[in-house]
Input
Amino acid sequence: MTFNISDRLSALSAEALAFVSRDKTETMARQWLGGHPSFAETPQWLVARSLALELALSEPSLMGATAFDRLARAMKGRPPDDIAAATLLRRSRIRLARLSDRIFEDLATDERLTLLPTAFSNEIGGGVSFGLFTEIDGAHIAATRPLVPLDDEALVLARSFVRPGNRGLGNGVRCAEAVYRHIVRNGLAPRATFCAAGARKPKLPFRPDENRLDALAAAWATLGRDPTAQELAQARCFANQDALMEVLLSVSTARNGGAPELASAYTRIAAVLVETLALRAANGSARGNLDAVASAIDAAIAGGTFHREGRNLFDSLRSG
Output
């Protein structure tokens, strides 16, 4: 494939979060914590909610559709690279693996593949990892969501789901549910550092007390529902070139800093800003020139102050 797999998988996996029921994930997180509402906003709660969100991405509905399937159905009119990346996301499977440099070793099948770098595998480094991977072809594989490192106890639990004869995980979703519940209730041994979303305070240039865009993203990250008309109107007030470019950069910064819900919130805000500028242009306003925004982004990329992933997201939102 000729497109940047890492950029597209990262961007679209964040978009897929919009197709997950936040009520469902919060209910699951509370069940793992014994149903105690007093855990809300504690570190343990953040870990539980983050892992429940990861599980919900893979858990099929009653009709058999996952969040990635629903994302793919909403891709009509998107660029071919996005369609191709969405197809790869739909093929994502929960895998138990040992990562070493560029080697992926499936501990449930003994299969060995070349690991293509993405932000998710780059962050976790080597060791035994658990999470979503997609096979690119018969020789290459890539992580499509944040991975969880396993200590010995969690590894024993995950191995109990391996089918006899090393024929893979018997039920990846149920295995993930058991492993994540174990982590929430028991934690991990000190040598295992949890790298999934929300497990640690993101290392981000994130200043909600000083930056109104950061404050809006922080609020939207905890909505658990679609923004109201009033909340959308608040976002539309930011519709200008500088704000849009800032938000596009913040999507990747949040994602790479281990804050997928915040990245999803920034993505939603970026979509509102792009839509608002497009509506202005359609009504003859010079303040809605998306071509000018594209030119500014290209100039910033050439100057080393912007990245290609942000441009790809801009193109994706504009074409949507």
Remarks:
- DSSP finds 14 helices and six strands in the chain.
- The two ends are 22 Å apart (CA to CA).
- Residues 260-282 form the longest helix (23 residues).
